[in-house]
């Protein structure tokens, strides 16, 4: 067994204080997101971990890409028939998390997911490269398949079928909007005395701001 007890780092790049934050977590998310982007805090700054409660009762986390955020919440796209999609449709309580190590920041979002309107999914699907569109159609996401050639052969067939045509979004593929009910901002600090500020939704519009012990 490899001993990792000496893997340590001191976090000293910034601070998170109550007198420096907005009343709305979306505004703070916006600030942190674009600071992370400007400072190249990650190769894909919009990469986030989505955790769901599966049909088997176990939580499962995987990395997907955030495609839009606004005052309503956070949008990503997936196959609704995938393990992830089925889990969300069965239990819409999900968790999103971002970790940007270069700026020593983490954001954890608890929220309730719902399908986006069909026109939103259509518009995003239409913006994708043709290869990505066909990939969404050809892949029975999360299903057991015999081998790699199964996907590649089916893709070749689809390329012939759709050549010269507009590739339309399949009904089983689209977006989820996660409406946040709790957002925690974590800023690394020296001596493991990290800053943790939590926003909790108390009604439709108001957020309660609390500091958590690290």
From TrEMBL:
Domain Pyridoxamine 5'-phosphate oxidase N-terminal as annotated: residue spans: 43-158
Positions bound to substrate: 67, 124, 128, 132, 192-194
NCBIfam families assigned to the protein according to its UniProt record, in alphabetical order: pdxH, PRK05679.1
InterPro entries hit by this protein: Pyridox_Oxase (IPR000659), Pyridox_Oxase_CS (IPR019740), Pyridox_Oxase_N (IPR011576), Pyridoxamine_oxidase_dimer_C (IPR019576), Split_barrel_FMN-bd (IPR012349)
Full protein name: Pyridoxine/pyridoxamine 5'-phosphate oxidase
Species of origin: Flavobacterium lacisediminis
Lineage of source species: Bacteria, Pseudomonadati, Bacteroidota, Flavobacteriia, Flavobacteriales
Record text on cofactor binding: Binds 1 FMN per subunit.
Functional description taken from the UniProt entry: Catalyzes the oxidation of either pyridoxine 5'-phosphate (PNP) or pyridoxamine 5'-phosphate (PMP) into pyridoxal 5'-phosphate (PLP).
Name of the encoding gene: pdxH
């Amino acid at each position: 067994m490899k001993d990792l007890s000496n893997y340590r780092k001191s976090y000293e790049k910034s601070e998170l204080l109550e007198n420096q934050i907005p009343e709305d977590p979306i505004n703070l998310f916006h600030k942190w997101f674009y600071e992370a982007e400007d400072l190249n805090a990650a190769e894909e700054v919009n990469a986030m971990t989505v955790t769901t409660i599966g049909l088997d009762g176990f939580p499962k986390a995987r990395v997907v890409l955030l495609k839009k955020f606004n005052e309503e919440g956070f949008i990503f796209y997936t196959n609704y028939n995938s393990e992830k999609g089925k889990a969300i449709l069965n239990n819409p309580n999900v968790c999103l998390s971002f970790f940007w190590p270069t700026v020593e920041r983490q954001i954890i979002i608890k929220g309730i997911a719902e399908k986006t309107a069909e026109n939103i999914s259509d518009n995003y699907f239409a913006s994708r490269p043709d290869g990505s569109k066909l990939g969404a159609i050809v892949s029975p996401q999360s299903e057991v398949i015999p081998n790699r050639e199964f996907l590649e052969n089916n893709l070749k067939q689809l390329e012939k079928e759709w050549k010269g045509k507009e590739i339309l979004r399949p009904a089983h593929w689209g977006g989820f909007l996660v409406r946040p009910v709790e957002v925690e901002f974590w800023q690394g600090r020296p001596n493991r005395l990290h800053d943790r500020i939590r926003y909790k939704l108390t009604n439709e519009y108001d957020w309660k701001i609390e500091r958590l012990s690290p």
